[in-house]
Queue: 4 jobs
Job 1
Amino acid sequence: MSLGNIHFLGVARKDADRAVLMTSYNEASEIDDEAIVRMVEQPELQLAPSTHYSFEIAGLSWCVYGDDRGRVYILIAQVDYPSRCSHSCLEELERTFIAKAV
């Protein structure tokens, strides 16, 4: 069980029918990385670039953000964690990830 608000933070890449978890932080390994990949691989998951999506699964808040290159930024937190903080965190993750990838 996590002692903090954020349980998982990661970046995945989604191609036509396959997803790869590129990097992640997983608090005490409580979130299954393969479950993240399976979620990103779902054909119904169509993310408009630069749009935040939030939903709740199993008592945790998921915030997902996609870019125009097929990358998916994912944050899983306590339900009461403010969405504005999740959104800011994912935008900062995107900036940092892109800066280090270039």
Job 2
Amino acid sequence: MKEPRLVIGSRRRCDNDGRFYTVKTETHRFCRDACRKAFHRYGSPFLQLRTCIQREVELAADAIEFRLFAALDGGAQARYRQANPKRAGRFDEQLEEVETGQGRKSA
């Protein structure tokens, strides 16, 4: 898929550091040569940020789901185990760690 051509003379953000710059050619994506080289050498800094945020959101969602699982009564936990056997197995291991005191200790 080809990228759309840019309008010469318009202002846009640099793909590497997000600074505004004036477009000089139709394929101009970076504010300066150092940004172009850094982007191609190290990749997009926003991609790394996005993957980090996705990982943190998944961990937070798992923690919330675990708390909800722990708060369920026995019958509801059994229904959850039938619907999600892999996740319930992991939650059972976490519950055992919490009950025995071997889980992670927060500061």
Job 3
Amino acid sequence: MVVGYFGFGGQLMASGENQVLAASSLGYAASGLLGYFGMCQMPLVAFARTNFMSVIMAIMGVAGMVSGGYSLPLLALTVMHCFDVL
């Protein structure tokens, strides 16, 4: 999942669409990777690892598809965040 967040988030960032979701997904992936290896226990980074962030980002992805259009990275990130919520 972390590799997918980095990959699709980077593609979305490079394409210039939905920059907020791309940056949030990259931060979520970096936070998860740091937390997995026990390297960062700051409260803000620990909060970024909660599943509530995936709920917000999944809603942002659906809103982006409704308002702006579909793209593979946007669809993949939205599906991954919906799967992460479960």
Job 4
Amino acid sequence: MRRLTAALRADRIDLVERRDAQARARGTYLIVLVAIGSMIAAGLAFTMNTMLHRFAMDQERTATERAQLVHQLDVANRAQ
């Protein structure tokens, strides 16, 4: 009877240890997955910010060029 009890107890301990190891492995996997996802999100945010900044600068440059052309046309029309 004692042998059976000891064997059952050893099996339970082994099962609990395996489950704990699996839970730790899943926890580590989840942490790595979240870290990688966060880096990807940060990279996308940086890329989008760069693209929007370039777009805004192009818009500003275009607006300045248009204003200069309008001024030149206005001067040319007044000269006639």
